[in-house]
Amino acid sequence: MKIGIPVLDELIGEIPLGKVITYYIDPEVEGDVFSMQTLYSNLEKYKCVFITSSMSPSSIRARFREFGWNVDESENFSILDAYSGYIGDISDERYIVRDPSNLDEMDKVVSKAIEENDLIVFGSLSTLIDMIGEEILDYVERWNKYARINDSVILYNFVAWPYDSRIVDTIKDLSNAVIEVGGIYHRVILGQYYGILKVDWKEVKGKAVLFKLVKPGGIKAYIPKILVTGPYNAGKSTFVHAISCRAVSVDRLGTTVALDHGHVEYKRFSIDVFGTPGQERFDPILRILGGEALGVILIIDSTKPEDFPRAKQMLEATTKFGLPYVVAANKRDLPNALGVDEIRKRLTVPKEVPIVPCSAVKKEGVFDVLDALLNLLIGG
Q1: What is the pLDDT along the chain (380 residues), one digit of tens a residue?
Q2: Beta carbons of 212 and 29 less than 8 angstroms apart
Q3: Which residues contact 298 (CB under 8 A, 6 or more apart)?
Q4: Distance CA 79, CA 83 (A)
Q5: Which of 118, 144, 115, 121 is nearest to 17 (CA)?
Q6: Domains defined for the chain, CATH in brackets
Q7: What is the rounded CA–CA span in Å between residue 44 and residue 191?
Q8: Which 3-state string (H, E, C) describes 198-241?
Q9: Which phi and psi (to 5°) does residue 23 adopt?
Q10: 67: part of which helix (H) or strand (E)?
């Protein structure tokens, strides 16, 4: 199976059957979408069941549709209803727990769902803990063992309310992988991220990925600012427009006098790109812009080595915070364009820094440049 989340798919690879994954979610983050997206990503190939204990089955289906996922179109989707019994409602779902407070009945129905399905998603393990108590964790351990025997994958949503540390530690210990979904705060929430706390089937370095929710669409890795800089007339504006699905420039007589701004939807990434003016009078803002960026693309004109010192000056201004960067060797289609080795020598950039030939006018190689920077950002 696959995790179905941008970047995580590449980092952890396929999920071996019989594994248990927990999304460890900050209470203030809309984290339930992660398990929904994982389920939907596997629905075509695997039989999947969603266990609801905190909202009605109709609300679950509406939540899926909110992100453009009509799960009822698939014969592989079913719901285990452990909610309607709490409110005395009648359910016609495939799996029904008529008395959710009865652990023996809960165990019987969940075990049947594990036996008959490949992916079992618990919409809210936290709700089960709140309603039943800590003893539910003994059943969690049993279900996990049964899933291993049955070659099923179990996925838990666990909202990290201030539970006793013993409960939290037990849940982490019972999981083969733990994915943290959190928020970045400064009085109010400024952003959301996910990252790997634990994976026992592959060695993975810690990595946090910003994300945003798109309706429809689901979770997309989000890079709020990539800076495109370089000397005057190197082709920055053309490059920003070449990679963007929408872009604007402010110019006077054909020369950019303010920031270019482009938005890129690429490989399940949502990226905002900003291009800086090349004139020296704008240099005071370069350090400010660099401090807010996550990565830098330095655009150079491959035919004008006399501008390389200026390019190096602008690069140093924007990368003083240690930002990852790549060099886009633009205008490679012109007959007097320098090769990569000669550019590296004249720019004196380290050998680990990618230099990628491109032609922004012809839109050739521009996404190779973006790929090179994304590889640096996600540790690919």
Answers
A1: 999 999 899 889 999 999 999 999 998 888 899 999 999 999 999 999 999 999 999 999 999 999 999 999 999 999 999 999 988 889 999 999 999 889 999 999 999 999 999 999 999 999 999 988 899 999 999 999 999 999 999 999 999 999 999 999 999 999 999 999 987 654 444 568 888 999 999 888 766 788 888 888 899 888 888 889 888 889 988 999 999 987 665 554 444 445 788 899 988 888 989 887 655 555 555 555 555 678 899 999 999 999 999 998 888 877 665 778 999 999 999 999 999 999 999 998 888 999 999 999 999 999 999 999 988 887 64
A2: no
A3: 229, 230, 311, 314, 315, 325, 326, 327, 328
A4: 11
A5: 118
A6: 8-216 (3.40.50.300), 222-378 (3.40.50.300)
A7: 32
A8: EECCCCCCCCEEEEEEECCCEEEEEEEEEEEECCCCCCHHHHHH
A9: -90, 115
A10: none
Q: Using CA atoms, how far apart are residues 69 and 314, in angstroms rounded to an integer? A: 45
Of 131, 126, 137, the closest CA to residue 163 belongs to 126
Phi/psi for 330 (5° steps) reads: -75, 165
Residue 80 has which token pair?
Answer: 């285990």
Contacts (Cβ under 8 Å, ≥6 apart) of 202:
12, 13
